[in-house]
Design a protein that fits this description.
With about 300 residues, the protein is of the alpha+beta class. The chain folds into 2 domains: about 110 residues, Phosphorylase Kinase, domain 1 (2-Layer Sandwich), CATH 3.30.200.20; about 180 residues, Aminoglycoside 3'-phosphotransferase, Chain: A, domain 2 (Alpha-Beta Complex), CATH 3.90.1200.10. Helix content is about 40%, strand content about 20%. The longest helix has 19 residues. It is globular, with a radius of gyration of 20 Å. The protein starts with a strand and ends with a helix.
Length: about 300
């Protein structure tokens, strides 16, 4: 085992990483990255002939996720190749181990982008506009023949109103709407996990979008809905609505808003009582509580019902 920067990684894994970069590459430092919830993510600095470069290694250690999607490493590798078509700065795939034969568990190695997550921007309007503009650009990418397609994380027919909410009747209305017919939507390439902690910034400009493992072909509204859900929890309804308005501006006639996709994104949180996503305090947002998450989710849910009813 090799210990660098208080991180322990197997020697055979580090040899695989180095070999993917250059025969003379040597590992200089290893840092665990914030935010990885269902996989282990490290930044690794390598040196080749006195020149340093940084790469990102993702190891898929979640056995349940791998049982459901055994091709995760292949999926992310292909997603990164496809994401390069979007014109948005994205990591480049360097190597992947689909089965874990070389790395012990499935793994993906990619370039590391410049920039940092920014959840406390100096200009919120500009920040929201940048998020929306970048997502609209991603959605211009065709995915008609892409082999991975959108699916919901929840068993929609089995959904019930959450016990943690005091608005159970309203949640039942949401569930009834989600169980109804889906609007017709032309599929495009979607990130599937687009939210502020997967967007990097540098000099108040977006420098990259990361974490493409869930990307697939699907309705643009799912990406919009997922990001709006995160914004509603982080900052409240007004910010979520500002993001939608900005997206509509940048997408123009290519996009027609359907509240259904927001509602379908919303039910992804119905696995259990809401809690503060650990990535948010890790990136400096303090003061969030589980009780506040419930309050904001209920308020956001009611606002979506208003939109769905045409108010």
């Amino acid at each position: 085992m090799t210990v660098i920067s208080n991180q322990i990684l197997p020697d055979r894994l580090l040899k695989w990483v180095a070999a993917a970069i250059h025969p003379l590459a040597s590992v200089q430092s290893i840092t665990r990255l914030h935010g990885g919830m269902s996989s282990i993510v490290h930044s690794i600095t390598l040196e080749v002939q006195a020149v340093e470069s940084k790469v990102v290694l993702r190891q898929f250690d979640n056995a349940e996720w791998l049982r459901q999607e055994p091709d995760l490493a292949l999926h992310e590798a292909e997603n990164l190749r496809w994401a390069a078509k979007t014109g948005v700065p994205t990591p480049q795939i360097l190597a992947f181990d689909e089965t874990g034969m070389d790395c012990g568990i499935p793994a993906v190695l990619m370039t590391q982008l410049e920039g940092t997550v920014d959840l406390q921007p100096p200009d919120m309007d500009s920040w929201v506009d940048g998020l929306a503009k970048t997502l609209a650009q991603i959605h211009t990418t065709e995915a008609k023949d892409y082999p991975w397609s959108y699916f919901t994380y929840n068993d929609v027919p089995a959904l019930e109103a959450p016990s943690w909410s005091s608005f159970k009747e309203d949640w039942s209305k949401v569930i009834a709407l989600v169980k109804g017919p889906r609007p017709i939507a032309k599929p495009c390439f979607i990130h599937r996990d687009y939210h502020p902690t997967n967007v990097l910034w540098q000099h108040n400009q977006i420098s990259g979008v990361v974490d493409w493992v869930n990307a697939c072909q699907g309705p643009a509204g799912i990406d919009i809905g997922h990001c709006r859900l995160n914004l509603a929890q982080l900052y409240g309804i007004n910010t979520a609505d500002a993001f939608l308005n900005a997206y509509e501006k940048h997408a123009g006639s290519r996009f027609q808003y359907e509240p259904y996709w927001d509602l379908l994104s919303l039910i992804d949180i119905l696995f259990g009582p809401p809690s503060v996503y650990p990535g948010w305090p890790a990136f400096g947002v303090t003061g969030l509580t589980d009780a506040l998450m419930i309050q904001r989710l209920d308020a956001y849910m009611l606002s979506l019902l208003d939109k769905a009813s045409g108010h």
